[in-house]
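Because showing beats explaining, we think one record worth quoting, sequence and backbone structure tokens together, and here it is:
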Amino acid sequence: KEAAWARGIKDRYGITPEQYWALYEAQGGSCYICQRATGKVRRLSVDHDHATGYVRGLLCRPCNTVVGRFRDDPDSFDRAAGYLRRPPAHDIIGKVKGNV
């Protein structure tokens, strides 16, 4: 199983297991974005730029999915961060709390 994983990351991303674990250690043993997932239950995904193919780092599956959904667009991430920091509804209708 380990050998198949090693072949897979080499064939798909061009990195060795040693490089994977070097990234893992450099990231503090967690997903670069959420910093919660450790890869202990499910190994962290190798994230790469789809336009260039260059490896960027290691992400958990949910964070890797978000990056993909935002189509690698940093402006989308900036807007999302701004949205969470200052939701437009607060300025328009005030802070209204639902029953959820």
In short: The chain has a mean pLDDT of 97. The first strand starts at residue 45 and ends at 48.
